[in-house]
Design brief:
14 helices
Length: 426
């Protein structure tokens, strides 16, 4: 496609999505559930053809020299497809929040005022790599009564086309508009530029991928963006704390999985707990090959740990999202310094305190400026599924509209409803 054709094509997607969004907004819960259950069935029935399409993407990725861990993220294994199908069924079983009215209050004038939950309208989703995101985004869009335009990574184009075709088949089977979920069929980056600049058709953009992608979308979009750039998450070990629990949680927060945005990248330790805690967690990290980039005080306490990979921390380390077996370690005076450090260096994603002091826990919850703040739990819990949202479309570190894991409610808005019996304002 040339530039003119891409502009016309993307504009057409917007027109179709806008028209479909009006029909989706009034679709009964039972019909939306029917579409989700049809999609679950189709994913299971069409596993073999889906894997044939996926094989073409994998072959291209390997030929292009893509690293094997990245190739692995592209795979539509039977387990991945079954997880997608189960996710659709779980969403279908959840209660429908659309049309729900809350906070209805009688006013002195006689009117009653409340708020109704309604779909956002049309969202655009721009994502990289994993093709299962196509199903996650489509199923959440259906459940929340929205329309969406999906633009996956060029490395997964055949997989995404095959998955999107099944979504449209499921919508048609339920009597819903096929255009409620549309996939951008071209890999040309020009299409992204048009998609993020159509406020007349698209109500919000959700980018999901690397920092470079999200920075570009945030910079160029003419549509509101729900985003998070980094996941520089902190675990703070307080004084007083249960040292054995702190070791267990700090280990999980870092080593459960290195690549997610909710893995802890920085470990802060109160001076009163450091001598007891650091050699123990140091031994755990050393056994797992985790490099510790520490302040002078923490390095001195870790120096006796056998096989520990110890490196002096630089100023940059306090802000770093490693996504790797590396963690920054700093000894702090106590709660005040920990909160100040987190609010300065954190990416406002997820931060945790490990403590036995109720007052310290309450201050941490109130004063740490992050989307998820935790007491005595691993940062790895910052996830829509773990929060009971059914699924998530991403995690937001923004402060407006959606913050933290974005599930069904994050794809909706509230409007005021007023019920009267002929009242007039004096």
């Amino acid at each position: 496609m040339n530039a003119l054709h891409i502009a016309e094509y993307t504009h057409g997607l917007g027109i179709q999505a806008k028209a479909a969004s009006a029909l989706m907004a009034r679709a009964p819960a039972a019909i939306k559930s029917k579409a989700l259950l049809s999609l679950a069935r189709l994913l299971r029935e069409q596993t073999a053809p889906l894997q044939e399409s996926n094989a073409r993407d994998l072959e291209r990725a390997r030929a292009a020299g893509l690293a094997e861990p990245l190739v692995d993220r592209l795979k539509l294994t039977s387990k991945v497809l079954e997880t997608c199908a189960l996710g659709c069924e779980q969403l279908a079983a959840m209660g429908d929040v659309i049309g729900e009215i809350t906070g209805m209050r009688q006013q002195p004038s006689g009117i009653r005022v409340g708020q109704m939950r309604v779909p956002i309208g049309v969202f655009g989703m721009i994502y990289e790599s994993r093709p299962n995101v196509t199903i996650e985004a489509a199923s959440l869009s259906i459940k929340s009564g929205n329309a969406c335009i999906l633009r996956g990574g060029s490395e997964a184009i055949d997989s995404n086309k095959a998955l999107a075709a099944l979504v449209q088949q499921a919508l048609a089977e339920a009597g819903l508009p096929e255009d409620a979920v549309q996939l951008v069929q071209t890999t040309d980056r020009e299409a992204v530029g048009h998609l993020i600049a159509m406020p007349e058709y698209v109500d919000v953009i959700i980018p999901r991928g690397g920092k470079g992608l999200i920075e570009r979308i945030s910079r160029d979009a003419k549509v509101p963006v729900i985003k998070h750039l980094d996941g520089n998450c902190h675990t703070y070990v307080d004084d007083p704390c249960d040292i054995a629990m702190a070791v267990k949680v700090a280990d999980n927060a870092k080593t459960n999985k290195y690549s997610p945005c909710n893995a802890s990248e920085s470990l802060l330790v109160a001076r009163g707990a450091a001598a007891a805690f650091l050699p123990q967690i140091g031994a755990v990290y050393a056994a797992k090959g985790v490099e510790m980039r520490g302040c002078p005080e923490s390095l001195a306490l870790l120096a006796g740990v056998p096989n520990a990979k110890l490196v002096p921390a630089t100023e940059q380390d306090w802000s770093e999202e490693y996504l790797a077996p590396i963690i920054s370690v700093k000894v702090v005076d106590g709660l005040d310094e920990a909160i100040a450090h987190i609010n300065r260096y954190s990416s406002h994603h997820t931060d945790a305190i490990l403590t036995t002091h109720h007052g310290h826990a309450q201050r941490f919850l109130r004063e740490v400026d992050s989307a998820s703040v935790m007491v005595n739990a691993s940062t790895r819990f910052a996830d829509g599924f773990e929060y009971g949202l059914g699924a998530e479309i991403g995690i937001s570190t923004d402060k407006f509209h959606a913050r933290g894991p974005v599930g069904i409610e994050g794809l909706t808005s509230l409007k005021y409803v007023v019920l009267g019996e002929g009242e007039v304002r004096g």
